[in-house]
Design brief:
The chain is of the alpha/beta class. It has helices at 2-11, 15-26, 32-49, 52-63, 105-121, 140-152, 166-178, 194-203, 231-253; strands at 83-87, 91-95, 100-103, 125-128, 158-160, 184-190, 207-213. Strands 5-4-1-6-7 form a five-stranded parallel β-sheet. Strands 2-3 form a two-stranded antiparallel ribbon. Strand 2 (91-95) and strand 3 form a beta hairpin. Helix 2 packs antiparallel against helix 3 and helix 7 crosses helix 8 (194-203). It starts with a helix and ends with a helix. The model has no long low-confidence stretch (mean pLDDT 94).
């Protein structure tokens, strides 16, 4: 897992763009023209990634494939689904305020949304997410379940604690649910992540009602229309690129 993690972050922006800048500096005397190209691509790529307007446009393309689950339908979901599956989204490690690992802000967003749907529909919840880098407990599923039960008052029926990827989220969750005769689910994850997640769960034999949350392809309403660079946009652009790459690669990696 760590080796794959390192290669992924070096090959995907902004890692590859920083490598281009490093290559440009190294080639500045040996091959000035090539160095200029590397600098141009590296700086240009970072500039584009840093623009909120880039995030808005790119997110719309992904999020348009994740239909919104309207609130007025929540109460009737028990007629169409048998369980809610909420996917993990990382953690904040050893937060001194809590004395333990806590869900990331994206995970909190997903858990809160899943809790609202569960309260309205009465459907049981499965939390999905493995150990930190596949080694250190507690699992993301357990962290999420503890938050739902202690802080929101929603019980979690199943914990899927083995997964390290979105595909494994689907594989192991499907195994647990199918073992109890459950084949129709409400899937809760971030809107940009939903197209890839839905594909994975459907490939593993589950019928999916999508419940995306955390849309970022909304009008940014910033000065100058989002054409000024922001640090947050760099992170969001990287996340969107990861999702786009996953949509292209997963069908070839996972038959």
């Amino acid at each position: 897992m760590p080796i794959r993690y390192i290669f992924k972050h070096l090959l995907m922006p902004p890692g590859c763009l920083l490598l281009l800048l490093l290559a440009g500096w190294w080639l500045r005397r040996r091959a000035p023209r090539l160095a200029t190209l590397c600098f141009t691509l590296g700086l240009g790529g970072l500039w584009i990634m840093s623009l909120p307007v880039t995030v808005e446009w790119a997110a719309r393309a992904l999020e348009s494939r994740a239909p919104v689950l309207q609130e007025e339908r929540w109460a009737g979901l028990a007629e169409h689904a048998q369980a809610i599956v909420v996917l993990g989204a990382g953690r904040e490690q050893a937060d001194p305020a809590w004395g333990a690992d806590q869900p990331s802000h994206i995970a909190l967003e997903r858990l809160r949304y899943a809790s609202r749907i569960a309260k309205a529909s009465g459907l049981p919840i499965l939390t999905s997410g493995g150990l930190h880098f596949g080694k250190r407990p507690p699992s993301e599923a357990r962290i999420g379940a503890e938050l739902l039960e202690r802080d929101i008052g929603v019980q979690v029926r199943w914990l899927e604690e083995r997964s390290r990827t979105t595909w494994e989220n689907a594989v192991f969750s499907a195994q647990m649910l199918k073992g109890e005769g459950i084949t129709r689910i409400v899937l809760v994850t971030s809107a940009p992540h939903m197209p890839r997640s839905r594909w994975c769960f459907e490939q593993n034999g589950l019928e999916v009602i999508t419940a995306p949350v955390g849309f970022i392809g909304v009008p940014n309403e910033r000065p100058l229309g989002g054409w000024l660079p922001e640090a947050k946009a760099v992170w969001q652009s990287g996340m969107l690129l990861n999702e786009a790459a996953g949509l292209l690669i997963y069908p070839y990696v996972y038959p």
